[in-house]
């Protein structure tokens, strides 16, 4: 970037923002290519759920197709939140059991954290709403005004 260094070597800078319209003119001038990255497609959402939701031989079969369908319009960050919320439900159940028990439970007698259930996933979807749609028109407008349109 101009003024950062006194060398003939090229410097490649990659930046990302969720609020590109808040970048000032000086920053926009220095970012040669401005590319709008769209929300994840179904295949990408499927891969994210496979990566982020725990699975194993004693775990339930995760309904990936249903998750992909129900998360249309979700950002990658939204999907990560759905997975974290679902993964926390078994721990919350265990904490409720332990809180009901007035006596201290010896460590070797602690119950195991159970697997994620389909109900956990449903609850996580109900409690995690997509966020990107709030600014969809602003992303499109920014892309029209400042985006780098590469034609192949």
From TrEMBL:
One function term, GO molecular function aspect: ATP hydrolysis activity
Pfam families given in the database record: AAA (PF00004), AAA_lid_3 (PF17862)
AAA ATPase AAA+ lid domain boundaries: 64-101
Domain ATPase AAA-type core positions: 1-39
Superkingdom of origin: Eukaryota
GO cellular component: microtubule; spindle pole
SUPFAM superfamilies for this protein: P-loop containing nucleoside triphosphate hydrolases (SSF52540)
Main location: cytoplasm
Keywords in alphabetical order: ATP-binding, Cytoplasm, Cytoskeleton, Isomerase, Microtubule, Nucleotide-binding
Localisation per UniProt entry: Cytoplasm, Cytoskeleton, Spindle pole
Keyword Cell division included in the entry's annotation: no
Record-given protein name: Katanin p60 ATPase-containing subunit A-like 2
Protein's organism: Panicum virgatum
